[in-house]
Input
Amino acid sequence: MANPMRIGIDLDNTIVGYDRLFRDIAAAKGWLPERFEGSKKQLRDQLRLLPDGESKWMWLQAEAYGPRMREADLIEGVDAFLRHCRNAAIPVSIISHKTRFAAADPDGTDLRQAALAWLEQKGVFAAEGCGVPRNRVFFEDTRAAKCRRIASERCTHFIDDLEEVFLDPSYPRHVAGYLFAPSGCGKAAGPYRLHHHWSSMADDILASRAA
Output
């Protein structure tokens, strides 16, 4: 008998969408060309061309992941997938590589508490909503610790927006990897299955359960 499915999901840029928020904050600072519509990664590259661009980028991340995180978006398709998992009694863990404070603002907002408040606000913990238990959200200080958590949570599938997670020597090879690359980036070849939309990724993962 096959092992029961257990889903692990990264948080930032996999569940939480920051593209619009990053653009709003950077535009208000006058750091972007008029009508800039690029992704978060394209925005990062744009900022790095500016004087002291790396510091600007670090400040922007601290602002978006901290005091302004409440303005971030739930990525389209996440809600439907989590509700399906709730209805099908498929356990879900959210496993994030997120330090408690931003390097650019070490005495500022607790980033982990900001993330938990955002998840609460979006109904991720609600029994009648997405139904992910609060005690199944994990924050790790390093990528290696995140990979160990994926193993200890006995995940059968893991979803992340970073190829580096699946390439990390600590990543448990028995866990099926799914790379979420909404901007069309991401290499198709790798120890993962590549998807640009949550809908197609959900279909892929749930099809593996039915197989």
User: Anything to note?
Assistant: Residues 95 and 149 are 7 Å apart (CA to CA). Residues 19-70 form one domain. Strands lie at 7-9, 16-17, 73-74, 92-97, 137-140, 157-160, 176-180, 193-195.
